[in-house]
Amino acid sequence: MKININFTVEIDPKDIGLYMHELNAVDESMREFVTSYIVSGGIGSLEEALANNGFGYNTVRRVK
Q1: What percent of the chain has pLDDT over 90?
Q2: In angstroms, rounded to a whole number, what is the distance separating the alpha carbons of residues 26 and 39?
Q3: What's this model's pTM, rounded to 2 decimal places?
Q4: In this model, does residue 64 exceed pLDDT 80?
Q5: Which of 22, 25, 30, 46 is the most buried (most CB within 10 A)?
Q6: Which H, E and C letters describe 10-27, residue by residue?
Q7: What is the pLDDT of residue 45?
Q8: What residue segments make up the domains of the chain, in order of their start?
Q9: CA–CA separation, 29 vs 41, rounded Å?
Q10: DSSP assignment of 1-64, as one string?
């Protein structure tokens, strides 16, 4: 099953920029960084919850 999730987040670009600098995240834009951070965190949280409750791991993946 595919589910499309679409939303907008408001960020503080100064804080995000400083965090990216601290991580040496120089290979992506701020938009790409925030998007990948939120997507990977969400998928990881759902997979961990499934695995912790006896369901399979790697059952969620991002498709474009």
Answers
A1: 81
A2: 19
A3: 0.79
A4: no
A5: 25
A6: CCCHHHHHHHHHHHCCCC
A7: 93
A8: 13-52
A9: 18
A10: ------------HHHHHHHHHHHT--SS-HHHHHHHHHHHHHHHHHHHHHHHTTPPSS------
Contacts of 63 (CB under 8 A, 6+ apart): 2
Of 32, 57, 43, which is closest to residue 5 (Cα–Cα)? 43
End-to-end C-alpha distance for the chain, whole angstroms = 13
And the tokens for 10?
């408001």
Spatial contact of 56 and 50, defined as CB atoms under 8 Å apart: yes
- What tokens does 16 get? 């995000």
pLDDT tens by residue, 20-33: 999 999 999 999 99
